[in-house]
Specification:
One of its GO terms (biological process) is tRNA threonylcarbamoyladenosine modification. The chain is of the alpha/beta class. It has 5 helices and 7 strands; from the N terminus they run βαβαββαβαββα.
Length: 161
């Protein structure tokens, strides 16, 4: 298991990292995004979507649970599992239909279900660095990516180059 860490000082930088990440994604890739409210998970997803040619607005699908964004070559499956209480609800959220499908899955708040999601994933931890905040500005973020399988390792290698 290997990992990479990036710093971001703005929403634009977080989106730019997402764009780099999005160019490396293939059908069936799974990213589990973890971070507090407002940490930047959706900003990262916006960048991923932009790099995939998604034209529609990307917001966190908190109440719908899933949003399917049509990209230029493949769809992006975007989940927000914040409101789910148990793994029994994952099927109703549409997760089982999207995993291993024709596009990558970006799963916000999926950390509570990693046993069910499995090891074929890349974990992305987005953390607000409150202690490094400058008065009147948004605090910087740390984005740490942790690979759990060979495909995740390939993605990290692509980001590192």
């Amino acid at each position: 298991m290997s990992e990479l860490t990036f710093s971001s000082t703005s929403a634009g930088e977080t989106q730019a990292l997402g764009e780099r990440l999005g160019t490396l994604l293939e059908p069936g890739d799974v990213l589990v995004l973890t971070g507090d409210l407002g940490a930047g998970k959706t900003q990262l997803t916006k960048g991923i979507a932009r790099s995939m040619g998604v034209a529609d607005e990307v917001t966190s699908p908190t109440f719908a649970l899933e949003a399917v964004h049509e990209g230029a070559e493949m769809p992006l499956y975007h989940f927000d599992l914040y409101r789910l209480q148990s793994a029994d609800e994952l099927g109703d959220a549409g997760l089982w239909d999207a995993l291993g499908g024709d596009g990558p899955c970006v799963i916000e708040w999926g950390e509570q279900f990693v046993d069910e999601i499995g090891d074929e994933r890349l974990d992305v931890y987005v953390t607000r660095l409150e202690t490094q905040a400058v008065a009147g500005e948004e605090p910087p973020r740390e984005v740490r990516l942790v690979a759990h399988d060979a495909r995740g390792e390939q993605i990290l290698a692509g980001l590192a180059s």
